[in-house]
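Table S2 (continued). Query chain:
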Amino acid sequence: MVELRKSRWETLGGLPIPAYHAPADQPELPGQPPFTRGIHEQMYRSRLWTMRQYAGFSSAKETNERFRLLLGRGQKGLSVAFDLPTQLGLDADDPLSEGEVGKVGVSISCLQDMRDLFEDIPLDKVSTSMTINSPAMILLAMYCVVAEEQGVSSSQISGTIQNDILKEYIARGTYVFPPVHSMRLITDIFEYCAEQIPRWNTISISGYHIREAGSTAVQELAFTISNALAYVDSACQKGLEVDTFAPRLSFFFNCHNDFLEEVSKFRAARRLWHDLMIERYSPTNPRSTKLRFHTQVAGVSLTAQQPLNNISRVTIQALAAVCGGTQSLHTNSYDEALGLPTEESATIALRTQQIIAEESGVADVVDPFAGSYHIESLTDEIYSQSKKEIEKIEAMGGALKAIEQGYQQQEIHTTAYRYFNEIERGERRIVGINHGTMEERIQIQPMKLNPEVTKHQHNRLKALRSERNMDSVTLILKQVTEASQNGNNLFPIVLEAVRADATLGEIMQAMKDVFGTYSAPSGF
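Corresponding output:
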């Protein structure tokens, strides 16, 4: 029996609300295949979505303070933003990191940084999402060690690593290794976590960045699910049974301004994933066919002009994500087009989710738009167009082959160019940009970064290298290189490298010695 959040369900005016309506000519119910109406029968009646706020800046200690502030104000899950050097697997004192340490996220170069990041945060009680891709294995290993030091076993921790390298080649750019070696790291993570970290979501297959780069909703869905199929294929080719890893696959979608299209997109996504998994892999575990997803509202839709208008945009987008059945949600702060979110703006973003959950009524009913002629038609159309696009990519040899040909990249560029031309010509109206404009004086003061963070990180790494057992570090890094070459699962060895105080950059270099690095062909 599912425990519900309330004993009575009624409108503000006292009218009774059933969990859902199920007319005779629409036999599909929430919580049943193909999951168009949601992956749980009671959805938010039993449990609200996880409210996450993406945060990370400067040093680990400063980010820890923001985490604890948000948790104290009702946030239920953490979402970590890493700086660019960390995303690229570089230590803070690497010459290539100069000028970027702590800028767009938190700087993590060693185990002590990870300890500082989660100080006084119980990792058996908090779910953590980490937006990390190329070095995902190393960051997760650091997280596991910090949890162990708290007395929390790997079997108890829960959360997600993004670990989605294909979208990096398509839309974002923080790749390091050539695609084939990147895929190997991902399947190593699948294999290890299935046995040792069973509550962890081993990948968050992301459409968010594809949409931010300029795709349509259909392209976002098609390219994301096409990438997901490539990951499943790669894992199966490694010899993994689909039901051992597929239940822990998760997705990450954007939610843009077209409210009804976005609701329909999420409904179509669940049905499409279910159908493709059944057709291609015949899993026996129903959870292998359930599309679970996190949503972030569209950063690209935020304007520096009239920034308070962004609160309205975020609210519309968050409401669409909830009506579409998201499992977790991040709401952007209204000042993000100007700088890092302040404490005030981050709190408003969190309160937006809480108001939707507790005051709007949309969380009281499952799939509130089911049966709408427009929504049902739009869901079918997005499903159909997305499936055709996936089939087109499959005919090219799959997502990886299409990426190597530059197909997805070119499609996104074309769509983005068309969209911005429409804005330039005034055919598409954006309030504050080409409609409803006015003279204004921006009063918002963006949060300022700690200018000492680079010096602090340099000093920490210098001290670490002088104090640790270098013989142990040299030996374990040699083992990382050997495992990179011989095909053994890298995760256990990376875990030992982290315990030996090898740095992020050193572990990455041990892999680069075998894998090399990757540069996209010109024009992509």
